[in-house]
Amino acid sequence: MAVITTYGDISPRTAAYAAKEFLERAIPYLVIEKFGQAKPLPSNSSKTMTFRKYNALSATPTLLVEGVTPTGKQLTSTDVSVTLEQLGDRVVITDVILDTHEDPIFREAQEVLGEQAGQMIEIARFGVIKAGTNVYRANGTVRTDINTPITLGLQRKITRYLKRQMAKKITSVVKSTPAYGTQAVAPSYVALCHSDCEADIRNMPGFVPVENYGSGMTPYESEIGKVEDVRYIYSTIFEPWADGGGAKAGSGTEMLSTTGTAADIYPILFLGKNAYGIVPLKGANAITPMVVNPKPSDSDPLAQRGHVGWKSMQKAVILQDAWMCRLEVAVTANPV
């Protein structure tokens, strides 16, 4: 009987090592990974992942009557289910490359694919969470009006809204390691932005750079700094809507523009705790590496092609829309 393996021409032990290396190369791109409610994918599970929250009880004062037991309340819960999607890719490596290339080509392919996996999964997650319905704009009533940058006043409007919605500050994050785990952090709201927004954020009144944090606050990777109770983290994956705004110099200050006419519009996502859920790219079941050496087959009788690839079951989902906001801004072209 033929032996069927899950990982191509590598053993499960080698695959586990390869998966760890994949994840290490992917980690720098996984900003969204840190701040969502993470639920690891069990082995041999269905394609549906369910996130459950228990609903708050009514806070209406209940007056007790002497000697009378009050009516008991029942806990209720809300389930949010999401159907996972399989992401992945592969590269083809020919026998000629293997015979003549001076570098360890399989390993090089594995490293490049590891970076791709992180970027691809982050882009997919960003597409989900930036679609929330709570939108603030730097100016105007629609996106095509916007041609001004972020301000402290805009941030304060957003944090006021989050607090009114009882959005808790983030107090723990997923660790930046291939293994799944969480760690405690100083309480704050978190804002995810593109690196182009950095100068405007630094120019906000009260900005504190990471190098001036006290001993009780450890900076995140790619963190710019904080303004009041919001910490700003950037990634180049959080792309703007090119030419999506108003006239690039219509506000009197020139804004960044892809074509030189309309301002590019950047989404900045302000997050409270448990605003969205993810399947973390962590642990043994997070990603499946595949390596197939060139070998004769009906489709490749001369053994001219081999493959290196990966696949992963992933999906992000908004769990509580009221605990996150999208701020749409332009970015100053010539910051000072």
Q: What spatial form do the alpha-carbon principal axes imply?
A: globular
* Rg, Cα atoms, Å: 24 Å
Distance between the termini: 71 Å
Share of helical residues: 10-25%
Mean pLDDT: 86
Helix/strand class: alpha+beta
Q: What oligomeric assembly is this protein in? A: single chain
Can you tell me the number of structural domains?
Answer: 2
Strand content: 25-35%
How many strands, what sense, and barrel or not for the largest sheet? 8 strands, mixed
Describe what this molecule looks like in 3D.
The protein has 336 residues and is of the alpha+beta class. It is globular, with a radius of gyration of 24 Å. Helix content is 20%, strand content 27%.
Short description:
The protein is built from 6 helices and 16 strands.
Give structural attributes.
single chain; alpha+beta; 6 helices; 20% helix
Sequence-ordered SSE layout with sheet pairings:
Layout: H1 12-26, H2 32-35, E1 37-38, E2 48-54, E3 77-83, E4 85-94, H3 95-100, H4 105-129, E5 135-137, H5 152-164, E6 170-174, E7 182-193, H6 198-202, E8 207-209, E9 223-227, E10 230-234, E11 266-271, E12 276-278, E13 288-292, E14 305-314, E15 317-318, E16 324-329
Parallel strand pairs: 1-12, 5-16, 7-10
Antiparallel strand pairs: 2-3, 4-14, 6-7, 7-11, 8-9, 9-10, 11-16, 12-15, 13-14
Helix pairs in contact: 1-4
